[in-house]
Amino acid sequence: MNVNAKPLSELSRLIKCLEVAGTPFKTEPQQFITTGNNDDEPLTFVIQSGLTVVHRKSDELLVGIARAPYIHGLSAWINDSYLEYSLMAQTPCTGFYLPASTACEIIQEAQLWQEAFCWLSWLNHLLGKRDIQLVGNNSYSQIRAMLINMAEWDDTLRSKIGVMNHIQRSTRISRSVVAEVLAALRQGNYINMSRGKLISINRLPTDY
């Protein structure tokens, strides 16, 4: 099993069952994905189409980019950690939401705990991978890790995301330092960029 691979078949089974109890939504780019009310009831959001960015609310740190299909707050019925993060549409997004307690009941009735476990384990793996790449590392190592991650994206996604802005928002390294490192890497022909977007990586030195 490839731990880096998104568990699409498990996601599909979860979404199919949860959708029957969901309330549809449509969100335009640069808008937060929310119900639009102040209901304190824990909710589970399912993104069925589009691209979203995940921010940590406490400091607006960009945690990652989520491409549909994506489920946010699946475990909200048991803890409120989902409240620490917000979802903002990067492109037009559609999906549905439902009370987290209802999602739990549906999962129980349909015996989808294995699918739910696979999804939550994958999310935990991504967060752990991010910590290994960024926490405790110097600025260049963090920038290098971010570039390697971006190089793994498909061309369509890379064409939508500016390199400097994405790295700065994800690491909080100053824009001047990010700009200096990117300029040096471009000058050394280590990376190829066009209009602020990453085209490809040729080779990245371990140290700067």
UniProtKB/TrEMBL annotation:
<comment type="similarity">
    <text>Belongs to the IprA family.</text>
</comment>
<dbReference type="InterPro" id="IPR014710">
    <property type="entry name" value="RmlC-like_jellyroll"/>
</dbReference>
<dbReference type="Pfam" id="PF15977">
    <property type="entry name" value="HTH_46"/>
</dbReference>
<dbReference type="InterPro" id="IPR018490">
    <property type="entry name" value="cNMP-bd_dom_sf"/>
</dbReference>
<dbReference type="InterPro" id="IPR041687">
    <property type="entry name" value="HTH_46"/>
</dbReference>
<feature type="domain" description="IprA winged helix-turn-helix">
    <location>
        <begin position="139"/>
        <end position="205"/>
    </location>
</feature>
<dbReference type="GO" id="GO:0006979">
    <property type="term" value="P:response to oxidative stress"/>
</dbReference>
<dbReference type="InterPro" id="IPR034719">
    <property type="entry name" value="IprA"/>
</dbReference>
<comment type="function">
    <text>Involved in oxidative stress resistance.</text>
</comment>
<protein>
    <recommendedName>
        <fullName>Inhibitor of hydrogen peroxide resistance</fullName>
    </recommendedName>
</protein>
<keyword id="KW-0346">Stress response</keyword>
<feature type="DNA-binding region" description="H-T-H motif">
    <location>
        <begin position="164"/>
        <end position="183"/>
    </location>
</feature>
